[in-house]
Please model this.
Amino acid sequence: MWGLTNEEFTGLMQQYQRLIYTVCLQFVHDPHTAEDLTQETFLSAFSAIDRCEPQYYKAWLVRVAANKCKDHLKSAWVRRVEAPGDDALPEPRGAPPGDAADPADQLTSQAGAEELETLVRNLREPYGQIAVLYFLQHKDTAEIATLVHRPPATVSSQLWRAKLLLRQQINERRLKE
Model:
């Protein structure tokens, strides 16, 4: 019906390549996977381009890309790969050497349990509740996730940020002393 020649399709690819790549990157957050999904999008589009009216090419290509990304994210391979825990996350840039210790241990050894409790209880939400459960009630991330009705990955992320905030507060205290 609205078939394109190879040259016309190549022009269409060049016109929308960056857009489709950006759509894919927004879904998968990995440049290499986004490149692969961009290629898959155009391969699928090439075989079915005659089903789309020319004025809708852009929207149609974006929808094809989104569907490719969703299919990729639902695939067994992607779901089987485990996300790293907060232990595997790198230390923040600029952190002094030796500061990799757990903020709770670090502060307890320096200042005492009362000060630790005060710092933890004063963290802003959503980190405060997670930090209290982890540092003061000694719950693991799976238990915390159940208690606060959040996914374990969210709890791990919030706990990592809580540790980062505590580390910053500890460093500020050190500078004042």
Summary: The longest helix spans residues 152-176. The CA atoms of residues 107 and 116 lie 6 Å apart. The chain is about 70% helix and 0% strand.
